[in-house]
Design goal:
Number of helices: 13
Largest sheet: 7 strands, parallel
Radius of gyration: 21 Å
Mean pLDDT: 93
Distance between the termini: 34 Å
Low-confidence stretches: 355-360
């Protein structure tokens, strides 16, 4: 009797980088789907595009997973064609990763960024929508993203990324000032940070915002640190560069406010880490946040609103403490690693059980 062929799961991953090596296992969003599928008896592979590192060196690498590295477009397209009947999970908004939907028959896509480009980027948005229609499902991270895709008749399911419990820390009144936890480039809206802190220091001259991330900003040849000096904010903004995850909690549990100014985000793990560590959230009013944090965060669209929200958070500690505790309870309950992994397994088993075809 012939032995039944083992089911196969492929994860297409673009730009695996060294910062991921510092993640806790519970937040390694690339390894978790592979672990989940191995537990269901799948043979697992990674096809790595533009990887910055040897993925097998990741401390959280899942044993027995085969890694294939991108060489050229012909090798990649041939691989997709050969595995077109396999369940393929594709990551990141690029043309190469979106091609999976055109070739594969059982496909899931996750953007790891805002699910659709901003409306101002019309051509890019139309291109992404075109490709999305060929996928079996798009994995989204909240109800607002689900509703957005539903308007375009694109099938999706809601399943956020897990958050590591190790970031949990009790809230206390001895915390000080603010923190910003992102690599700095144009989409993170660094100018809003500068304008906000200029306003905040009028009322709180000793306010300090610690910026934790690489300085990739370039405005007329000037990086963010140079812009801080030009604006006379050296005493109020400290650029600390990238902080590994193992050290990040120590900073977050001493910080009072987490500030976000991005013009677009995916789930944004840094916000969840800060919330779990006990920071009050001052967030940009974009698709990623309001349907998740509701009234448990402060929202802004301008530097003046953000400055006002920082003042409110500093002056209303009782209300702030309640927001923090409710966010922590929500994250511990709904973003647990085991819970998210089980839901992913159930969803994928559903796809296979009903032999879902993307063209049905």
């Amino acid at each position: 009797m012939n032995k039944e062929k083992k089911r196969k799961f492929i994860s297409i991953i673009r730009w695996y980088h060294s910062q991921i090596f510092s993640f806790d296992k519970e937040q390694n969003y690339h390894m978790m789907p592979l672990e989940a599928m191995q537990e269901l008896g799948y043979e697992c592979e990674i096809f790595a595009i533009d990887s910055q590192v040897k993925i097998e060196d990741d401390p959280n690498f899942v044993p027995w997973v085969r890694v294939i590295y991108y060489k050229n477009i012909f090798q990649y397209l041939s691989y997709l064609w050969e595995n077109r009947n396999t369940l393929i999970y594709s990551n990141s908004l690029t043309i190469k990763t979106l091609l999976v939907g055109l070739i594969g028959k059982r496909t899931i896509f996750m953007a790891h960024d805002q699910v659709l480009p901003l409306e101002s980027k019309k051509i890019k948005r139309l291109i992404v929508l075109f490709f999305y229609r060929f996928f079996s499902y798009i994995r989204v991270i909240n109800t607002d993203e689900f509703k957005l895709l539903k308007k375009y008749n694109i099938r999706s399911f809601i399943l956020p990324l897990a958050i590591g419990k190790s970031f949990y820390s009790l809230w206390d009144k001895q915390r000080e000032w603010g923190v910003f936890i992102w690599n700095l480039y144009a989409d993170k809206n660094p100018q809003m940070l500068l304008d906000t802190i200029q306003e905040v220091k009028k009322k709180y001259p000793n306010f300090i915002l610690s910026v934790l991330g690489e300085d990739r900003y370039d405005q007329n040849g000037l990086n963010f640190q140079e812009m801080v000096k030009i604006n006379g904010l050296e005493k109020n903004i400290k650029v600390c560069w990238f902080i590994p995850h193992k050290q990040l909690k120590n900073i977050l549990e001493k910080s009072y406010i987490c500030v976000n100014t991005s013009i677009s985000e995916g789930q944004c793990l840094a916000v969840f880490e800060a919330a779990l560590a006990g920071c009050v959230l001052c967030l940009q009013n974009i698709l990623s946040f309001p349907s998740v944090f509701w009234d448990r965060a402060y929202y802004h669209t301008t530097a003046q609103q953000l400055a006002n929200n920082i003042s409110q958070a500093l002056e209303n500690q009782k209300a702030t403490e309640q927001k923090v505790k409710e966010n922590q309870e929500m994250i511990l309950k709904h973003y647990d690693y085991t819970v998210i992994k089980k839901k992913l397994q159930e969803k994928i088993e559903f796809l296979f059980a009903y032999s879902l075809n993307k063209h049905s």
